């Protein structure tokens, strides 16, 4: 419907804006999950070139019929981005990356597919460029999973949330930097929002327990107490905490 087309082109416009492209020259962008090429239309209008990847032959057929400007590639991005290093000046993706969280086949491991996608995307992007991925996460675990794999692959950056206080207009843009950590752009409609919302930092769980020297304090008392608390919340049987919890035992002679 025309409403869908309108929302799609608004999100494409916002994604390209968040890329912060140079204004003095045309750039080559990768459109991940390009579908029928609606986001590509906006890229072309803005004077840039693009290559689109999509897993659906039917959608790409529509793009071909519509005679879009970009080049099209039928591929599953969970298998990786098959382009040479540093080829793209940026990447956008509208409503696609969350699909990598689904295991459609027995052999599919979402973390592995996400890592393969992000690590090969990182390589295909020029240093100093960005990837802006608009996505519809099902829950915070999905956001954590996606963000953690992006950071593992070398990206910096994080989530930009537009209109965090609106049920309808709220949009998530994962804004990733290659080789330079820029300032994360502000989400739209966050002026009146409470501060922690556009500070929506999704950290990789493992980095939480680090002592001052950066060593992991896994097995520390705090770590053990938190793990026991998590187990209790899951309804598992856990021993009561005592003053001995997390203490080192003396060596045996």
TrEMBL record:
Region ranges (Disordered): 223-253
Keyword Nucleus assigned: yes
Gene Ontology cellular component annotations, sorted alphabetically: cytoplasm; nucleolus
GO molecular function per UniProt: rRNA (guanine) methyltransferase activity
GO BP, one annotated term: rRNA (guanine-N7)-methylation
Domain Methyltransferase type, residue spans: 30-106
Compartments where located: Cytoplasm; Nucleus
Residue ranges constituting the 18S rRNA (guanine(1575)-N(7))-methyltransferase Bud23 C-terminal domain according to the UniProt record: 176-250
Ranges annotated as biased composition (Basic and acidic residues): 235-244
Entry keyword set: Cytoplasm, Methyltransferase, Nucleus, S-adenosyl-L-methionine, Transferase
Catalytic activity of the protein: a guanosine in 18S rRNA + S-adenosyl-L-methionine = an N(7)-methylguanosine in 18S rRNA + S-adenosyl-L-homocysteine
Its job: S-adenosyl-L-methionine-dependent methyltransferase that specifically methylates the N(7) position of a guanine in 18S rRNA. Requires the methyltransferase adapter protein TRM112 for full rRNA methyltransferase activity. Involved in the pre-rRNA processing steps leading to small-subunit rRNA production independently of its RNA-modifying catalytic activity. Important for biogenesis end export of the 40S ribosomal subunit independent on its methyltransferase activity. Locus-specific steroid receptor coactivator.
Similarity annotation: Belongs to the class I-like SAM-binding methyltransferase superfamily. BUD23/WBSCR22 family.
PANTHER family linked: 18S RRNA (GUANINE-N(7))-METHYLTRANSFERASE-RELATED, METHYLTRANSFERASE-RELATED
Subunit and partners: Heterodimer with TRMT112; this heterodimerization is necessary for the metabolic stability and activity of the catalytic subunit BUD23. Interacts with GRIP1.
Protein name per Swiss-Prot or TrEMBL: 18S rRNA (guanine-N(7))-methyltransferase
Taxonomic placement: Eukaryota, Metazoa, Chordata, Craniata, Vertebrata
């Amino acid at each position: 419907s025309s409403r869908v087309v309108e929302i799609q082109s608004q999100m494409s416009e916002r994604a390209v804006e968040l890329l912060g492209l140079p204004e003095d020259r045309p750039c080559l962008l990768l459109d991940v999950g390009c579908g029928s090429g609606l986001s590509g239309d906006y890229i072309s209008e803005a004077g840039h070139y693009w290559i689109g990847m999509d897993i659906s032959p039917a959608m790409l057929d529509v793009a071909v019929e519509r005679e879009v400007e970009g080049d099209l590639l039928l591929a599953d991005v969970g298998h990786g981005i098959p382009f040479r290093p540093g080829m793209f000046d940026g990447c956008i993706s509208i409503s696609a990356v969350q699909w990598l969280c689904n295991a459609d086949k027995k052999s599919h491991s979402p973390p592995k597919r996400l890592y393969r996608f992000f690590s090969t995307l990182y390589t295909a992007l020029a240093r100093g460029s960005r990837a802006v991925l608009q996505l519809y996460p099902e829950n915070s675990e999905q956001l954590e999973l996606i963000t953690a794999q992006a950071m593992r692959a070398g990206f910096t950056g994080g989530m930009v949330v537009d209109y965090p206080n609106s049920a309808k207009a709220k949009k998530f843009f994962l804004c990733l930097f290659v080789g330079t950590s820029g300032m994360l752009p502000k989400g739209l409609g966050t002026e009146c929002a409470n501060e922690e919302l556009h500070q929506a930092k999704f950290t990789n769980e493992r980095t939480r327990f680090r002592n001052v020297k950066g060593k992991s304090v896994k097995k520390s008392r705090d770590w053990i107490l938190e793990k026991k608390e998590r187990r209790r919340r899951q309804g598992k049987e856990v021993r009561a905490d005592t003053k001995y919890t997390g203490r080192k035992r003396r060596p045996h002679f």
